[in-house]
Specification:
The chain has 323 residues and is α/β, with parallel strands linked by helices. The protein has two domains: 115 residues, Rossmann fold (3-Layer(aba) Sandwich), CATH 3.40.50; 190 residues, Rossmann fold. Helices cover 33% and strands 13% of the residues. The strands form two sheets. Strands 6-5-4-7-8-9-10 form a seven-stranded parallel sheet, with helices on both faces. It has a three-stranded parallel sheet with strand order 1-2-3, with helices on both faces. The longest helix is centred in the C-terminal third of the chain and has 19 residues. It starts with 5 loop residues before the first helix and ends in an 11-residue tail after the last helix. Bound molecules: nicotinamide-adenine-dinucleotide (NAD). The site of nicotinamide-adenine-dinucleotide has 28 residues, from α4 and α6.
Length: 323
Amino acid sequence: MFSCKPYDRTFFDVPGNPHDMLYLETGLNETTALLAEGSGAVCCFVNDIVDTAVLECLHEHHVQLVALRCAGYNNVNLDSARRLGITVCRVPVYSPHAVAEHAVGLVLALNRNIHRAFNRVRENDYSLNGLMGFDLHGKTVGVVGTGKIGATFARIMHGFGCRILVHDPFLNPALDGIARYVELDEIWRESDIVSLHCPLTPDTHHLINERSLRSLKPGVMLINTSRGGLIDTRATIHGLKSGRIGYLGLDVYEEDSDMFFENLSHEVMQDDVFARLTTFRNVIITGHQAFFTREALERIAEVTITNCSAFEKGDLDSAVRVM
Ligand code: NAD
């Protein structure tokens, strides 16, 4: 298991796991792939590199299965895996509630300035200047992507008494009576809060850019817990400086693969764009932790173990295969 943190291990070191585990803190890449020698499978996470070179090395060392302990598989070269006869499986759903609730957490913290109030009170400063929020009740929330997470987020925000506008090429019947499907332009124009819950594809890359920013309601709150590439960060910084964006909540960042999940507190920050983002008082960034609940980690381990067992028994229909 590559990129393994102590908290991952807790959920795999359970009596129900019949597999011999080798826990490695290092990520999977061309240099570390050799460590898989003698293993039937590798288990990877979002920032592990599973490109052609890595897959060829795994194949040479008789690894037959890549068991992803995440939903996305954009880090795997599926064509090469297919050519080399390596099976790839994943965990498509773990907890939509975890991510949706984190997005709501960002909304509430930004709106009521909870991050700033926390610091003030620690400084013995109980003044309220600059901390004023707004009632969520009656506000319009735009949700882009109404799959499992987007629909869960929309339902929670509906519970606050918000008007919900949504956009997705596919209608989700779970939102009947809760949300209205509209074109993106209407989402941009009407929403006080916009939350992104669609995958990163060539179509959605930089969905938030200079142009869409001009269409957004001045002072809009923008939330992204999906993938960093949905937002053009430089354009967003201009939007924050001009006041077009009033609040920004991020759990993902375009260049997050070299940073997130690691303790870099002893290093000098090299990314000037990210550094600029951290200077705004109306920006909250969390390091890809929206999924990080006990329930989600339990489910990830459970499905990954089941996938490995199904593969071992040759019962590929029971494994959640990518291909
Ligand atoms: P899902 O597949 O259930 O839903 C995605 C939805 O986006 C689908 O309904 C799809 O039709 C829609 N979509 C696709 N292209 C679109 C477009 N151009 N415009 C609008 N909608 C579009 O996925 P999900 O489980 O709800 O996950 C949503 C995203 O959340 C994932 O893509 C992933 O990137 C992200 N995610 C983040 C974390 C985290 O910890 N921050 C954890 C899990 C997932």
